[in-house]
Amino acid sequence: MELQKVDGRKARGEKKRRAIVEATLRVIERDGVSGVTHRSVAREAGVPTTAPTYYFATLDDLLIATLLWSAEAMCDDVLKIIASGTAREIARSLATAVDTNRGRTLAEYELYLLAGRRPELKPAARRWLDLATEVARPADPVAFRAFLAAIDGLLMQGLIADVAPNEDELEPIVSFLIRGRDESTAAPREE
Amino acid sequence: MELQKVDGRKARGEKKRRAIVEATLRVIERDGVSGVTHRSVAREAGVPTTAPTYYFATLDDLLIATLLWSAEAMCDDVLKIIASGTAREIARSLATAVDTNRGRTLAEYELYLLAGRRPELKPAARRWLDLATEVARPADPVAFRAFLAAIDGLLMQGLIADVAPNEDELEPIVSFLIRGRDESTAAPREE
DNA sequence: CAACTACTTGAACAAGTGTTCCACAAGTTT
DNA sequence: AAACTTGTGGAACACTTGTTCAAGTAGTTG
């Protein structure tokens, strides 16, 4: 049981595997899921055409691995903001998501839609919702669900706007949505 | 200027053109945008492979035509409900959209995402939002934008839920969202 | 009937696809 | 050093793709 000494080949293999996944995510951000092919990914990652096939049995597996990994990474970012953020902080994050991180946000919603057709992706797509609900322990579950739904809507609508909405534009909307949140938790229960 | 007599050939042509568009929409509902090829559409429509190419210069044109047409059709349905519906009616429509009309709703959101990458589709994707705002003449624009955003979010999240949310589950959320609407318009301004 | 236009359709092409195969290099163990 | 496992990567295969082409039919007009 020597946990110290790992096979150098496997170590490099895992590294390359991750590099391929990261390259795939970049391709998705740039060209969408439909732009993902063994060859486009290999080119992006700077590896031979057969490398993706070696590490992932099928193209679908590569896609799924990428989206699971992407969702995981996204979760952390989102949660911090939602759980403890003020309306302005949330609005700023949303504005960034549809502007600077536009490609990434688009990719994220391609996951949603893909999950709509592939049940095995559903848990990953739903993860941030479940976590958010768990972390926030909302006093008013109905208002909180409305809030979470509106976040998705604001992001999607921000993606198809002629000019992406900015922080100042989003702030009042976010304020409206979390209106009930802090009021209701004025006397927080410690259980 | 004989507007009466139309070329019988052109008439049939237009009919076939529309049949191809409808077949394309069915393919999107079933297999997603990525499932759309000249051949799959032709098979679905029961026409030879070259028919789609004859009527649409390129596959992209076919896709765009289909999505424009789909968005148009969707608009009418949605508007009636939003503008004059009660919370329960809206909740019922949403529940239907993620259950019975699941495929159609998925297709609609693929338009959204496609519009995110193809500016020429943005107006079509945004159409229902603009129309809804115009028709509703909301007293509280902020609350209304939150409401519209939440609709998108509820639909998308409904698509990735393990079991699609039903009418009763959605009703309180919709109620929460339109809470301010009717109160604010108690004294409607006629200008 | 002849000229013209609009539509029809099968064959074919080049390009790109996912995937397999296999000879080989490199690292690990005995 | 021999046997093994793991990773590498070029060549190739069968297949699907978007699109073109040319020969054809049918409807319209003069």
TrEMBL record, chains A, B:
Domain HTH tetR-type, first and last residues per copy: 14-74
Keywords (A to Z) from UniProt: DNA-binding
SUPFAM superfamilies noted in UniProt: Homeodomain-like (SSF46689)
This protein's record includes keyword Aminoacyl-tRNA synthetase: no
Domain of life: Bacteria
DNA-binding region: 37-56
Protein name (Swiss-Prot/TrEMBL): TetR family transcriptional regulator
Taxonomic path: Bacteria, Bacillati, Actinomycetota, Actinomycetes, Pseudonocardiales
